[in-house]
Design brief:
23 strands, 22% strand, single chain, Rossmann fold, alpha/beta, 35% helix, 12-stranded mixed sheet
């Protein structure tokens, strides 16, 4: 392959620490940026590499003692590139054999086209004086694939720094594990999450269930500053029509925004178990004895335990404690804490007249994506409670479906792969909660039951290390806290160079993508979420969306 722009020459290095390049005198050091994608042409292999550091060097310390004057342009030009030069640290990530085309007698002496060369992990280093080039469009597509490939497994998420060539996620590999999108507040995590969700919906690689805490994914939402033109951006329902269903906990809020919800969610007290309450100990400030008291109520009143606690607690908590053989103070503390749940408008006393999770499963089994909006119910307690209740029930149904599929081995019984998106993930997956919540279980299962997570968080250091080690693909925007940077690099080999790359990201529309869905770590400028993007993913006209929605509703529920 003929490459146009040579930027330097390899001078030294090692397999573990990376290699050093001496920058060509014709190249400006200010064009060399951490995270840039380059190619080293070795004698037998091309080494696809990332720039991790840039350093100014001299051949003699005397030059630094007596630097040329500002106006002495001739001396500056004489020293530049020879006595004073730039050294660039490169981290080779992949290598590709540079095999020449061969001819055979059967081909009449004509050159035969080789099979595409195999992309391998780096197990050696290029020789001294190997030339380094800017990566070409062919290099990027060779490594990261292209949306033009017919298998539909690639989705364009952004372009390398200083290039316009698409970098694609391999969605087949992306859905194989749980994944994470990280970045400090204001760096565009929601924007990145929308991009990824659009790819999953468009390519039909998984069914999505999004717990939408701030009503940002289903319908239009305010445009994040600096991430494109216009005041509002389209949500999944506007882009994909009847493929997406909006469920809401706050129908009044949904209607005020001009959104027609597909279903209004109501949770009855008989659907709430102690297992749903126990992970909320920090949020409710419950002590262990109060949780034990809850189990005493369950032993006597079963599914009606919460209704009994709240209604009887208002009248005579002491009598209820004597009836159960519970400590009065513990039971009283439990009542005071759980009384808060009755204040939520979406919680109703009594037995459920409609099984909301079964209704959701009907959508999921049809391959329809669900966005659950919380409206004004944006307290962390409401978010943790509702997402825990629904996810636990869905996971139980998925376990049964998976067991049935393994028994029958009939593809008709195979569950559709489900990706559950949660925000503020450190609240669910901190070292204490991860062992109690259903989300910790799902993260550790690695798609065993066809369910995985997409976690969105600004404080990855708050997530349990065991859970982070199971995260397949990480899309990381700017992080400033050293603990957060260290956490997102958990389980990454030779993280030193990537640490400096993370620290140098722009605060908008840049992210480091690494892990299972990309062959090597790469810094991208994420694609714009704009009218061109809407056209690229094939957004449906409003009339067509309405027609499909009416037909799907009829097919689902007659």
């Amino acid at each position: 392959m003929q490459r146009a722009t040579e930027i330097g020459t390899i001078t030294r290095g090692s397999l573990i620490e990376g290699v050093e390049m001496r920058l060509s005198p014709q190249q400006s050091i200010e064009d060399i940026k951490a995270g840039k994608f380059v190619v080293i042409e070795g004698q037998k292999n091309d080494f696809f590499s990332m720039i991790t550091d840039v350093r100014l060097d001299t051949t003699s310390s005397q030059i630094l003692v007596h630097p040329p004057d500002r106006d002495d342009l001739l001396m500056r030009e004489v020293l530049a590139g020879t006595s004073a030069y730039a050294t660039v640290m490169l981290r080779p990530m992949l290598m590709v054999s540079r095999r020449p085309s061969q001819s055979s007698p059967e081909s009449g002496g004509r050159q035969e086209v080789d099979e595409p060369p195999e992309v391998l992990p780096v197990k050696t280093v290029p020789a001294h004086f190997s030339n380094v080039y800017d990566a070409s469009e062919d290099d990027v597509s060779q490594i990261f694939g292209s949306e033009s490939q017919r298998d539909g497994k690639y989705f364009y998420i952004g372009a390398p720094l200083d290039m316009i060539t698409p970098v694609c996620l391999n969605l087949d590999r992306f859905v194989e594990r749980s994944n994470g999108i990280f970045g400090k507040t204001g760096t565009g995590k929601t924007f990145l999450t929308r991009l990824v969700l659009c790819g999953l919906v468009k390519q039909e690689k998984a069914v999505n269930f999004i717990f939408d805490m701030h009503s940002e994914y289903g319908w239009q939402a305010a445009q994040e500053a600096g991430l494109g033109k216009g005041s509002f951006v389209k949500g999944l329902k506007q882009l994909f029509g009847s493929k997406v269903a909006i469920f809401t906990l706050d129908p009044d809020s949904t209607q005020r925004r001009g959104v027609q919800a597909d279903y209004e969610v109501e949770i009855f007290t008989d659907q709430i178990t102690v297992e749903d309450i126990a992970p909320l100990q920090d949020e409710l400030r419950l002590n262990p004895t109060a949780v034990e008291a809850a189990y005493l109520i369950v032993n006597k009143y079963h599914q009606n335990w919460l209704e009994v606690l709240i209604t009887r607690g208002e009248k005579d908590i002491k009598a209820l404690a004597e009836e159960l053989g519970a400590h009065t103070e513990s039971l009283s503390a439990l009542y005071r804490k759980l009384r808060r749940l009755a204040n939520f408008d979406f919680i109703t006393m009594g037995s459920a007249s409609d099984d909301i999770v079964s209704r959701m499963m009907a959508y999921i089994n049809r391959g329809l994506h669900i966005v659950l909006e919380f409206g004004r119910e944006t307290s962390m307690l409401a978010y943790l409670l509702v997402s825990g209740i629904i996810t636990r029930r869905i996971h139980e149904l998925y376990v049964k479906q998976t067991e049935r599929y393994h028994a029958s081995q009939d593809l008709a019984d195979k569950p559709k792969h489900l990706v559950i998106t949660i925000e503020e993930a450190h609240k669910f997956l901190n070292p204490r909660s991860a062992k109690q919540t259903i989300f910790g279980t799902i993260a550790r299962e690695m798609r065993k039951y066809f369910v995985s997570l997409l976690i969105v968080d600004q404080r990855p250091s708050g997530i349990d290390d065991e859970v982070l080690s199971q995260i397949g693909t990480r899309i990381v925007a700017l992080l400033n806290d050293e603990k957060d940077i260290q956490s997102v690099l958990t389980g990454v080999s030779n993280p030193g160079g990537l640490r400096s790359v993370l620290a140098s990201l722009d605060s908008r529309q840049q992210a480091l993508v690494m892990g299972h869905a990309v062959p090597m770590p790469v810094v991208v400028r994420t694609r714009d979420y704009d009218e061109q993007f809407y056209r690229d993913i094939g957004s449906l006209p409003v009339e067509e969306q309405d027609r499909q929605a009416m037909q799907d509703e009829k097919d689902l529920f007659g």
